[in-house]
Amino acid sequence: MKSIILAFSALTLAVLPSSKATATDAGAAWWKSGVVYQIYPRSFQDTNGDGVGDLKGITQRLDYLRDLGVDAVWISPFYPSPMKDFGYDVTNFTDVDPRFGTLADFDTLVAEMHKRGLRLVMDFVPNHSSDEHPWFVESRSSKDNPKRDWYMWRDGRSANQPPNNWLSVFSGSAWTYDPTTSQYYYHAFLKEQPDLNWHNAELRAAMLSAMRFWLERGVDGFRIDGISHTMEDAALLDEPADPSYKDTKPEFDKLLHVYTTEQRSNHSIVREMRKLCDQYPGERALITEAYITFEQQAAYYGTPEAPEAQLPFNFHLISADWTAASVAKVVAEYEASLPTHGWPNWVLSNHDKHRLGTRLPQGQARIAAMVLLTLRGTPTLYYADELGMKDVFVPPERAQDPVELKTPGKGFGRDPERAPMMWDATTNAGFTTGTPWLPLEPDYVTLNAEAQDSDPQSMLSLYKSLVKLRRATPALNVGSYKQVAANEDVLAFIREAAGQKFFVALNFTDKISKVALGDLVGRVVFTSVLDQVEQSVAGALELRPNEGVVVRLD
Ligand code: NOJ
């Protein structure tokens, strides 16, 4: 007993200011009150045995998503594509790649989703197309082609010298020489992903009309890919070196991207997209993707008069140290950075980042679920995180991701987090009858969705009950946030709405921790261990190792 007491981390209450917006908005828009679930379509469910997931597969699995309790599904790109960057290299912005199905399959998917009250969020890729897109094929054909200016063509600085020192996110120069017209074209990503020129009015109109195409077909919103990169400074000056660069980081980080990212004019694009979405009923939403500062993120809400995105993705927890103190700091800074009309959102992983189950110490993945689903703001969860899936080992000969192929063995590759979903214990986890395009998580025999569904304490059961609790509890859903305590070990906060107050305490350690409750009294209504609840608490709350609890305050 003594050793347990010594291991206690006692935490006393210190109430910090409450979040600015004390939303008690019962009829909140779906993007505010809902939970978003990301599907990487290549890896969700294959129905034709080619080892790659497809739209029919997603339709087949909609009841799983409904039972999980999510509200919206963002699907990574399924446009026609040579798949150099697995769909983020688009050859037609208004069609479906045959590997994923047909437009008819898409229509069925939307209809089936809507039948179940689920929203569909498309991925939209405004920054670039594939080099095989007919627009680029035309553009590169001659200097006076009408589509020449739809991309960024420039003369070299001198013979065999690109126009400047700009780097591709995926390494190497961001300029590729094209002998047909003896000019260079700019590409923030792969050379097979030439940047579109949003200064060109025709290109702009063509891209917005592609969005209109999907809005007419019933999509509920767009996740806007790589918004930071859409505009570049016209002077084409060299970018300065980043003095803090270390060679363990990608080459792209050598420079400070002052001329190629986060240009003010990016906002005019998002404003136009928003105007378009607002012409349609049902709160069509924009989610912008950018790894930027809180201040830059806040700007993507636009203003009440000229709104931009409803949800500028907030990735700051992905890079935060996993301690209660540093998570508390991220939350406080984020909350403070939000404009009054800005609604927060939280992301813990996606198809570009190593999986939660791999990044966090064992036991903490459950706390991550609680963080994601009890903070103030819309959560986005990445498929199979609800199963506690880990990164999969991908042997070099099976590498697929262009980042891994260009910079092998450095740990920058994104294949490990893109492995197939684990549905059941049958061959290939029920994902495919063919050869899966990436290896499966070897634990699938025990960690699959079917097995976890019948285990009342599994990770899947945790996600399901948390989503359910959140939905049933306005305070946890749209209520205010007030941090009450944080040290290295425990984060505690109060969520409040509609006259109800909930105290959330999360133990970021694998030892017992104690939180002083001051004069707060209440009843435990939820524990991440998924065992005893309805226990009264007063004076202090003892958290078991890696435990998070929700207490309804009297
Ligand atoms: C961000 C996407 O999430 C990533 O997967 C992709 O490679 C780049 N944008 C380029 O489109």
Question: What are the main properties of this structure?
Answer:
single chain; 554 residues; alpha/beta; eight-stranded parallel sheet; seven-stranded mixed sheet; 18 helices; 18 strands; disordered N terminus; binds 1-deoxynojirimycin
Characterization of this structure:
- With 554 residues, the protein is α/β, with parallel strands linked by helices.
- The protein has 18 helices and 18 strands.
- The chain has helices at 2-7, 30-33, 55-60, 62-68, 103-115, 134-141, 201-216, 266-278, 294-299, 316-319, 324-337, 356-359, 364-374, 402-406, 444-447, 449-453, 459-472, 474-478; strands spanning 10-11, 36-39, 72-75, 119-124, 153-154, 175-178, 183-186, 221-224, 285-288, 311-312, 345-347, 378-382, 480-486, 490-497, 500-507, 513-527, 536-543, 548-553.
- An eight-stranded parallel β-sheet has the order 10-9-8-4-3-2-12-11. Strands 1, 13, 14, 15, 16, 17 and 18 form a seven-stranded mixed β-sheet that branches.
- The longest helix has 16 residues, at 201-216.
- The chain starts with a helix and ends with a strand.
- The model is unreliable at 1-9 and 20-24 (pLDDT under 50).
- Bound molecules: 1-deoxynojirimycin.
